[in-house]
Amino acid sequence: MDEDGLTARLKAYEGRSAAVGGTGKDPVNAPMIRHWCEALGDTNPAYTGPDAIAPPTMLQAWTMGGLTGHTTGRSQAYDELLALLDESGCTSVVATDCEQEYLATLRPGDEITFDSVIESVSARKTTKLGTGHFVTTRTDVRVGRTLVGTHRFRILKYAPERRKKAPPRPRPVVNRDNAGFWEGVQQRRLLIQRCTACAALRFPWLPGCARCGGPDWDTLEASGEGTVYSYVVMHHPPFPAFDPPYAVVLVELAEGVRMISNVVGTPYDKVRIGMPVRLEFRSYDDDLVLPVFRAAAEEAVV
Ligand code: ZN
Fold first, then answer.
1. Number of domain units in the chain
2. What is the CATH number of the domain that holds 132?
3. What's the pLDDT tens digit per position in 55-97?
4. 20 to 30 A from 83, CA-CA: which of 23, 176, 194, 263?
């Protein structure tokens, strides 16, 4: 069904009854008034004592069917309308707002009846939640023949917004101590820090030499050759940007330092300790490049 056809079918429900001759499950009563006032912290003395009136905002409460619903007064039109919206993909629902108008005071002992009408069904609207249709129902509440109030209730039946693509991979934390490493990655170079005092290599990047304590350093560009020193297979917990299970590897570079990365092109259950790997740079999105490894031996690539 096209959108115009659907809207026309939905609009046909405007003015149809959602409930006819509904009756309150209980008469207006002091215990429900007391619970309501306690829940809302409303200490207005008008709602207690022998001359108590019901809080006007309880209007809808007197019409509610509770968990088991109403056995009388229900009309099929509203259920049909919701089913039609479900079929069109608008399977989610959210209550958006209600408006009430109070015309007479309700007091304990009043027996209410109500009628509901489907007042309006909107054209297709796009909201942050998704695209759908607003359905407004008006309920007229009566005691005897006297209209005591009206209650308008609006819902949005909508098709939930689908995630268009996987969320981006988390960004690396770039700071003063490791900025040089990430600048190298942007240039597709894997730079290892080297102490200018004792020539010890270090990875990941640190502010000082672990061997001699020297603060000065330069860099050595890695050849890109390495072997899998160890690995773990991640099954849990899931992260939105990743698709478990996947292998996280500790690669020992030919220069002797080790780094954590991924092996691309090899299934997680084919990664092995000692597997020769070669560096490559992979673009994950517009501004994220990461150093990864690929099995060096052709036969290891499945
Ligand atoms: Zn050193």
1. 2
2. 3.10.129.10
3. 999 999 999 988 888 777 777 899 999 999 999 999 999 999 9
4. 23
